[in-house]
Amino acid sequence: MNKSVKFSGEQLSQLIGYYQEQKEQLNAEMQELKEKVASVSDMIKQLQEAQGAAAAVSGGTESKPAPKTRGRKKGSTAKAATAAAKPKKASGRAKKSDADKTPRVSFATKILESIQQNDRAMNAAELFEQMAETESGEIQESKYKQNIHSNLNNLYKKGALKRIKDDKTYAYGLAEWFGNKGEIDQMHAPIRNQVSEA
Fold first, then answer.
1. Under DSSP, is residue 5 helix (H, G, I), strand (E, B) or coil?
2. How do residues 96-134 score in pLDDT, each as one tens digit?
3. Which end of the chain is more exposed for a tag (fewer CB within 10 A), N or C?
4. What spans are recorded as compositionally biased (Basic residues) (predicted)?
């Protein structure tokens, strides 16, 4: 009953190879699922941002209760409602259109698409400028800078940056766009190391 099954060296090698293939396939499927989850999570976040922006544009006037009159004249409530409905004067900063507040394609997605289509990454500074450019041609640096680091880290975890061969063009092109090479060297050291090892 306790006899062990004996395999030849060749059979063992075949079994090891078979299970290694199974492991690689499962790892690939797991990575694909993780990427899908990350993509869905990103979409949910962008939709929530769009929802918040839409609520800010509407001003939430629909949810506010009507003011109590308490002996006011009949026309006073109507006047107050008319005054509230009038658009407020801009406070020095131009009001963004709804188009500027709609969900955008993430940097990570753009870079991945570029890698898949061209088998190389576009110049980082040029790509980020395209993503941050508005219809008026202005670069909204403060709005887009805050998302770049997390998106690049996601790419680093996915292993996509292994396919970027030109470390100098990538890292310092990005640094040039930021205008602070030291900041990029410090923030993206793990990513730059990954690119160098590719």
1. coil
2. 555 555 555 555 555 555 545 544 444 444 555 555 454
3. N
4. 67-76
